[in-house]
Amino acid sequence: MRLSRYFLPLLKEAPREAEIVSHRLMLRAGMIRQQSAGIYAWLPLGLRVLRKIETIVRQEQDRSGAIELLMPTIQSADLWMESGRYNDYGKEMLRIQDRAERAMLFGPTNEEMITEIFRAYVKSYKDLPLNLYHIQWKFRDELRPRFGVMRSREFLMKDAYSFDLDEAGARQSYHRMFVAYLRTFARLGLQAIPMRADTGPIGGDLSHEFIILADTGESQVFCDRAYLDMRVPGADVDFGDGAALARIVEAWTTPYAATDEMHDEAAWADVVPPARLSARGIEVGHIFYFGTKYSAPMKAHVTGPDGRDHAVHMGSYGIGPTRLVAAIIEAFHDENGIKWPRSVAPFDLGIINMKPGEAAVDAVCEDLYARLGTAGFDVLYDDGDERAGAKFAAMDLIGLPWQVIVGPRGVAEGRVEIKNRADGSRQTLTPDEAFNRLLADGTAREPAG
Ligand code: ATP
Ligand code: MG
Questions:
Q1: Which of 80, 273, 396, 405 could form a disulfide with 417 if both were Cys (CB 3.0 to 4.6 A apart)?
Q2: Do 297 and 330 belong together in one domain?
Q3: Which atom of ligand 1 sits closest to the CA of residue 209?
Q4: What is the CA 168 to chain-centroid distance, rounded?
Q5: Is 327's C-beta closer than 6 angstroms to any atom of ligand 1?
Q6: Nearest of 347, 280, 235 to residue 2 by alpha carbon
Q7: What's the rounded Cα separation, in Å, for the pair 134 and 69?
Q8: Could you tell me if the CB of 189 is within 6 A of ligand 1?
Q9: Mean pLDDT over residues 25-30, rounded?
């Protein structure tokens, strides 16, 4: 992509209402534009990051055996009357009337709708387990939308729903999602810690929030530092091996980790003081088992091996891709801007032409641009005629993992410079060496093991 033909509306200063760094940087880097409170348009640069996150989320859902479908944003209130939630949900739900004065709503979540789809088709335990997910916009009329896309009213969610014959089966489905979540967040470059969360009236131990530690997080959390050194399962993890998954979940739930609401002072006292980490955190995912809460009132039954009818046991599993864009920036930035992990960067690298119009410089830039593109890199080529300082600042702000800087003096000596955005290191190389160096680093890959 040539910057001169791209749509990248950078801002010199962030609007005053942006309170946290991710919100400021997303506005300054031209990633989002507010349309009304808590409702944002995704501009091209922001959309690229969002799509990359979605892709990783989707790949790991698919790997775990979940199956994608797509449900509508607008739902009929009838479904919610069946489950009994229509009146309970309160003001967070955006209620709408269509022209025939039927009660509709903009979905804040999809338990009812997926249960309706399930019960229409699945009648036998032989078709279980089943886990269906979609990645769709949600609307919740949050009391206090704030921090940009971190807590917005309209936001994207990956929500999966598992169906099993009994609790034992549901536990296995829960484990599969738990492990898929570990892998998903690691591939996004994040260290997400699964923390015990409230299970409400269902009780039990099957509810976890996945939390990223960050000073700007809205939750107070308490956990063992041991989590910071734990390695997530590799791509070869066998989602068909229930015992292996149970062992992984066991390992990841043994050290202490709880949010404020679930904090247990007695258990905390058993964590040795140097290992105690009390911090702020951002919830990026939430998984829970809720038994027959929806299947019983909505009559989602299957015939079991005993020939009798059973209300299916369900779980639901959410991830917020739009919130994740902000959470990743909270984790990866410096005073000059964003430092994208390679797996979600909007472009793999940027080429800065320091002297557009000078034939020798243009030739080196064009050649690298073409070769890197052919090699599979997504390249943003700054071919515009801003002054050098502004170009450097813009490239640092948008945070692409690598910069290739091509100027007249270097070109005269047969050299270009490459800069790594994450650590600021620079190398002066021939254009061929630079190409090979970038090639060796590769495009977004899966993390090893
Ligand atoms: P919170 O406690 O932050 O309001 P929640 O418990 O309401 O979250 P869930 O219903 O479990 O969240 O939704 C699943 C995921 O959707 C969350 O983990 C989060 O990543 C995302 N999410 C929820 N609400 C919002 C929001 N208002 N803006 C952006 N993302 C959100
Ligand atoms: Mg909420």
A1: 405
A2: yes
A3: 18
A4: 29
A5: no
A6: 347
A7: 5
A8: no
A9: 98
Structure tokens at 357: 């119009």
Give tens-digit pLDDT for 245-260: 999 999 999 999 999 9
Ligand with the closest atom to the CA of 144: 1
Residue 443: per-residue pLDDT: 56
Structure tokens at 7: 């749509």
Residue to substitute in 139, 140, 159, 283 for testing ligand 1 pocket (most ligand atoms within 8 angstroms of CB) = 283
Q: Give the tens place of pLDDT for each residue, 181-240.
A: 999 999 999 999 999 998 877 677 799 999 999 999 999 999 999 999 999 999 999 999
pLDDT at position 441 is: 87
pLDDT at site 449: 35
Bigger pLDDT: 15 or 50? Answer: 50
Say yes or no: CB of residue 365 within 6 Å of ligand 1.
no
Per the domain annotation, does 343 fall within a domain? no
User: Is the CB of 111 inside a 6 Å radius of any atom of ligand 1?
Assistant: no
Query: Model pTM?
Result: 0.96
> How far apart are the C-alpha atoms of 53 and 111, rounded to whole Å?
23
155, 208: one domain: yes
Q: Would 419 be classed as within a structural domain? A: yes
Mean of pLDDT values over 431-435: 98
Mean pLDDT of the chain: 96
Q: What CATH number has the domain bearing residue 198?
A: 3.30.930.10
Domain span at residue 193 reads: 3-338
142 pLDDT above the threshold of 70: yes
Question: Of 279, 312, 338, which residue constitutes the final position of a domain?
Answer: 338
